[in-house]
């Protein structure tokens, strides 16, 4: 039994190493935001600066084509939340409040000043709404693209299984327990990292 476990772990480690080599270099810059690095990539010139936050499971590269078009008009930045794209994994527990603060630190470290037009896609809509609420003087616009909402299940009359109903806002609202996991990508990346360290 131990041999099978060791073989499985070796496969995970070597697969992780192989994929790590295939990952292209970061197109933007990475900044330390408190013991871990976050990636931001800006193009174009002008004001206000457009800041794009991708949906759950997506990273900045999903918005490169939109960024190219927007950058013809004004400065446009895409960034990767911790655990996505070229950003390191961030601390737990994760919440949109935490993500909003991380974005604030990232923008300061990268010397990207407002005013901002915030674009939040799907899950990114939560984060950008919180950022806008916390920094109204720096915001000149907020664009929500198919954005999620904390009450969407009730409003759309979606019935979740009891165990999921309690967890649905875990990543949005700070909770006392950090036992609940967040994103699929973060979980997989952590599993590969932990397997490599074993």
Description:
InterPro entries: AB_hydrolase_1, AB_hydrolase_fold, Meta-cleavage_hydrolase. Keywords: Hydrolase, Signal. Residues 1-20 form the signal peptide. This is Alpha/beta hydrolase. GO terms for molecular function: hydrolase activity. The chain is α/β, with parallel strands linked by helices. It has one domain: Alpha/Beta hydrolase fold, catalytic domain (Rossmann fold, 3-Layer(aba) Sandwich), CATH 3.40.50. The chain contains 7 helices and 6 strands, in the order H-E-E-E-H-E-H-E-H-E-H-H-H. It has helices at 2-22, 64-70, 96-109, 123-134, 152-155, 162-165, 184-197, and strands at residues 29-32, 37-43, 49-53, 76-80, 116-121, 139-145. Strands 1-2-4-3-5-6 form a 6-stranded mixed sheet, with helices on both faces. Strand 5, helix 4 and strand 6 (139-145) form a beta-alpha-beta unit. Helix 1 crosses helix 7 and helix 3 (96-109) crosses helix 4 (123-134). The chain is globular. It starts with a helix and ends with a helix.
Percent range of helical residues = 25-40%
Task: Tally the beta strands.
Answer: 6
Q: For the report, how would you describe the main beta sheet? A: 6 strands, mixed
Strand order of the largest sheet: 1-2-4-3-5-6
Low-confidence stretches: 170-184
Helix/sheet category: alpha/beta
CATH-defined superfamily: Alpha/Beta hydrolase fold, catalytic domain
Q: Give the overall silhouette.
A: globular
The figure for the number of domains is 1
CATH architecture: 3-Layer(aba) Sandwich
Total number of helices:
7
InterPro entries: AB_hydrolase_1, AB_hydrolase_fold, Meta-cleavage_hydrolase
GO molecular function, one term: hydrolase activity
Protein name: Alpha/beta hydrolase
Keywords: Hydrolase, Signal
């Amino acid at each position: 039994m131990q041999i099978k476990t060791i073989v499985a772990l070796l496969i995970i480690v070597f697969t992780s190493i192989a994929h790590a080599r295939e990952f292209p270099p970061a197109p933007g810059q990475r900044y330390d935001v408190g013991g871990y690095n976050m990636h931001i990539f800006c193009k174009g010139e002008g004001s206000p600066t457009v800041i794009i936050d991708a949906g759950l499971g997506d990273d900045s590269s999903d918005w490169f084509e939109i960024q190219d078009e927007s950058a013809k008009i004004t400065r446009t930045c895409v960034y990767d939340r911790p655990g996505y794209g070229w950003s390191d994994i961030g601390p737990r527990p994760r919440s949109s409040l935490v993500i909003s603060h991380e974005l604030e630190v990232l923008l300061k470290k990268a010397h990207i000043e407002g005013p901002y037009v915030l674009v939040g896609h799907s899950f990114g809509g939560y984060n950008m709404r919180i950022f806008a609420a916390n920094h109204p003087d720096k915001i000149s616009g907020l664009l929500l693209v198919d954005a999620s909402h904390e009450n969407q299940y009730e409003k759309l009359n979606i019935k979740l299984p009891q165990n999921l109903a309690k967890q649905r806002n875990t990543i949005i609202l700070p909770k006392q327990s950090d036992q609940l996991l967040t994103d699929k990508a973060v979980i997989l990346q952590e599993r590969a990292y932990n397997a490599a360290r074993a």
